[in-house]
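#help-structures

NK: newbie question. if I give both the sequence and a SMILES, will the prediction place the ligand too? trying with S-adenosylmethionine
OV: yes, paste both and it writes out the complex. here, I ran yours:
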Amino acid sequence: MGEIILGDNLYVLRTLPDGAFQLIYVDPPFNTGKAQSRTRIKVTPDPDGDRTGFQGRRYRTDVVGTSEYADIFDDYIGFLRPRMEEAYRVLDDHGSLFFHVDYREVHYCKVMLDEIFGRESFINEIIWAYDYGGRPKTRWPAKHDNILWYAKDPNNYTYNYDAIDRIPYMAPGLVGPEKAARGKTPTDVWWHTIVTGKEKTGYSTQKPLAITNRIVRVHSNPGDRLLDFFAGSGTLGEAAHREEREFTLIDNNPEAVRVMCHRLAHYGIVVRGVDVTDRADEPETEPRLL
Ligand SMILES: C[S@@+](CC[C@H](N)C(=O)[O-])C[C@H]1O[C@@H](n2cnc3c(N)ncnc32)[C@H](O)[C@@H]1O
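OV: that's the protein plus ligand as structure tokens.
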């Protein structure tokens, strides 16, 4: 069973009990300095259309919607810190946090998380490497994201080694045929393409299910409760459901909640909102879940 909550995650997090989640994955806005937006289009056969497709057939393009949120922060760490302090509080004593960001802010985020969790709780920095999009000619194209893993108790956390999916050897000829057929476990560099095909929800910044799936399988157990409080299109919810975990997804963008409801409706979800009406100037006021 899962729940989706519309609201500012700081207010919502304050309503959640201590130690309630065995795994937290978050993918906050990256502070790119731009509005993150994606336009969804529908293409219909039309001899007078504006596109040419396979075998010269003509198609008409119609815009069916746009999803957008601002990704500009004057004080990015000031925005994140109270939210990550709440994340620490609501994380189970043996739980893990996966924090997804990119090269622009990862070093500041690591210092902040070391302060909140303790340096000894930092276990890995996973590099998600992809290969898509433009290639500037003035520097090495940046084609990776950074995922920081913190365990609340660095001596006692979930790491289901046997649940790790296997990948092909780069030089299978150097290992025996048996090993080559079995494949190897990945390192802390995870190669995976960006979201493609049927997986696309149309939400800008949607992350691949395979990445969150691997995190969910290896770092939690069936029946655990998982949290993503920058949930976007609900990728963590999808992975959690597939692996028989419970989930709580929070986002303050109504469009994100619409996309999540559409994506996860058949999984049995409860949708709630947080009452923060007229409370923008009173951050200490007790929030109320509706
Ligand atoms: C990078 S996207 C997450 C994408 C997601 N991992 C996915 O696969 O679709 C970040 C999300 O954080 C949300 N967000 C930003 N500030 C927030 C806040 N204060 N409270 C709740 N959500 C917030 C944005 O609306 C956006 O959907």
